[in-house]
UniProtKB/TrEMBL annotation:
A single MF term (Gene Ontology): zinc ion binding
GO cellular component: primosome complex
Naturally occurring in which organism (per UniProt): Croceibacter atlanticus (strain ATCC BAA-628 / JCM 21780 / CIP 108009 / IAM 15332 / KCTC 12090 / HTCC2559)
Catalytic reaction equation(s): Couples ATP hydrolysis with the unwinding of duplex DNA by translocating in the 3'-5' direction; ATP + H2O = ADP + phosphate + H(+)
Record GO biological process: DNA recombination; DNA replication initiation; DNA replication, synthesis of primer; double-strand break repair
InterPro entries tied to this protein: Helicase/UvrB_N, Helicase_ATP-bd, Helicase_C-like, P-loop_NTPase, PriA, PriA_3primeBD, PriA_3primeBD_sf, PriA_C
Co-factor remark: Binds 2 zinc ions per subunit.
Domain named Helicase ATP-binding: residues: 291-459
The protein's name in its UniProt record: Replication restart protein PriA
Entry keyword set: ATP-binding, DNA replication, DNA-binding, Helicase, Hydrolase, Isomerase, Metal-binding, Nucleotide-binding, Primosome, Zinc
Highest taxon in the source lineage: Bacteria
Function of the molecule: Initiates the restart of stalled replication forks, which reloads the replicative helicase on sites other than the origin of replication. Recognizes and binds to abandoned replication forks and remodels them to uncover a helicase loading site. Promotes assembly of the primosome at these replication forks.
Amino acid sequence: MAYFIDVIVPLPLKNTFTYALTTEEFANIAEGMRVAVPFGKTKVYTGVVLAKHTTPPIKYEAKPIEEILDSNPTVTSRQLKFWVWMASYYMCSLGEVLKASLPSAFLLESETVVELNKAANIDFSELDDNEFLIVEALQNQSLLRIQEIMQILDKQRVLPILNRLVDKQAVIINQEIYEQYKPKVVSYVRLNAIYKQDDKLHDLLDELSRAPKQREVIFKLFETSASEKKLQASDLAKLCNTSSSVIKSLVDKGILESYQIQEDRVQFEGESTLKDITFNAHQLKAYNSIQQSFETNSVCLLHGVTSSGKTEIYINLIKDVLAKGEQVLYLVPEIALTTQLITRLQSYFGEEVLIYHSKYSVNERVEVYNHVKNKTKGKIVIGARSSIFLPFQELGLIIVDEEHESTFKQYDPAPRYNARDAAVVLANLFKTKVLLGSATPSIESYYNAKHQKYGFVSLNKRFGDVLPPEIELVNIKEKYKRKEMSGHFSDRLAEEILNTLKQGEQVILFQNRRGYSPYLECLTCGESPQCPNCDVSLTYHSYKNQLRCHYCGYHIAMQLECMKCGSADLTTKGLGTEQVETELKTLYPDHNIGRMDLDTTRGKHGYEKIITAFENEEIDILVGTQMLSKGLDFRNVGLVGVMNADSLLNFPDFRAHERSFQMLQQVAGRAGRTKKRGRVLIQTYNPFHQILQQVSTNDYVGMYKDQIEERHQYKYPPLCRLIRFTFRNKDFNKVNEASLWFAKSMANTFKEHVLGPEFPPVSRIRNEYYKNVILKIPKQQSLSKTKEVIDKILKSYTAIGQYRGVRCVINVDPY
């Protein structure tokens, strides 16, 4: 009987691929194991076994696999089910889900290697200079990689030369599989076991009487052995104030022995000071209500105002789950948030806390993945959206903190999933519970709670009965008229900043645009430098004195004269965080000013350094983008200033008003989180805007009613589903023709529910033109049947030769 497996290959291809197995391989293989499989003529990929069976493929002959890479499955059966759901719902391939799910170290890669053909008699007279150099190098070492050949020849294009050598049968080209993950092994030193006996130790010390430095090392080791502290050779040398050569000579003599231990790259150094949390009456009521809600609902929405003590409720719920021996997933929207949260949770749970996000190295992520799968360490995982792919064994609770945040949505590459929605499906696979927490819930979650799909718990009092911040709207249109502005600061904001600093409190200023100035303008001809690759103006960054594109990274030096008319009369327009920082340094020269945006937090510990400095009150005024709005807890912030609220409101997106309310409300929530009431000043040209009025009175329900009415009228989520199709190509006409054909084909079936094709606000990025078609799917319409129709239209689309180069990117629930 023939045996086969279906393998998911890490490529954006819709199908799985069937490979043949021997009887022995079939007996040793299981679903979820990794296998090395040949693909195409020369490539070898790591695939994951989706199913094993005895049915041969119809359209092709199954190739044998290269090798089985695991003795136990790397991927659990629940993960595989989750992947299949994700590929189906978000209309992407299983290969794309595989690439997103596994740390890249698990996906072994094949690398082209060149070896000498020992069976051939090489005629050196037929070789040119480059060919001779390669053959000569191969006579001195067994194989060469492509990169090494490039270095030997000092050329980038070496494949034609290698092809000539293959034709002359001088070399053989193979694929070598290499593994990326290497466990961290640390070497330590200890006293040889034979010297643990008193008489042997006395003899040794007598023997070393003429080597005082070596004697001192032995004494130090003996002292530290009582504390059971492991010592590396370098640490021991420092302790004894001696050189490493002294330690080495003791190892060589066999007096000390060197041993190795495999260790985690990320370790918790402190101690957990586990203590009971004392709830106030409001928290206790909310906690009990959540427990009751979980009896009838699998998902519960906790609507708790900023600084109401939601984290303490989460901690108690986590304790309940850990008592049952189950695992917890705590999802946060931004890495910046994890810094504070980790410290807080580790003070309760110590080594039980594992962290997983993109700033971790590949090796660090592999270690967390293995701990979660094998349950060797840590039952609580705090992570960004990618942590929903971890191989949980007994998941008891998923907490989605700040569930309204748009950063839970993955935009590129596929799968373009929303971690909040995917968490609900993942919990369903484990038959467990999800808690969504936010001070400003998303319209969808609140709608689901109102329609009894989710449980709902409200926590509307701040911890310690602190009053919500006092919010004041400053009309900068009037301030400019009356000449009461210093740069971009109204006299009111400048005065409040000064008063706050005098009281020894800190200030947060919010401006949701990085850089110094959004664009440069010539006052003579009105020209503004544009990016040659994208349809956007270049942003001025003063710290590098350059103009930079935030889409493709293109940059040029700051212009001294207009590129069009040659005039030197140039000015910067608009406002970025860098300019706010510069103006603050002029206005408040005696105070420390920090900035938190994408430019200042690029390093692995970038967020941590800034947040810690602000917590320790080393920074008096912190300027930042939306990173500052996400659940950070600073105890000494007396004032929050919003530099310009209008840039949030005037955005071409049906969610613009909802997002503006959420962001302003969240930023305002950073003020006055302890005993004293905080103050919030929002500068705007339009203080009578409905959203700003609702923010100033903290009227979430009013905002929800307005927005849901609009969504009902214009058929937007949560009252219907959206799928966006984005067409991309470097040829403008091709993009136009392809998107128009697709929109017409869709309109034949879905009629008025198809919008477009339309160019997005930024219609060219990296020299590619973009055009969107949007499909609205009413609630009563079957999603699965709709996707079947879309698949048929996509097959017809890909069959048209002239559109083949125009890529169609599918984004389900795009906003």
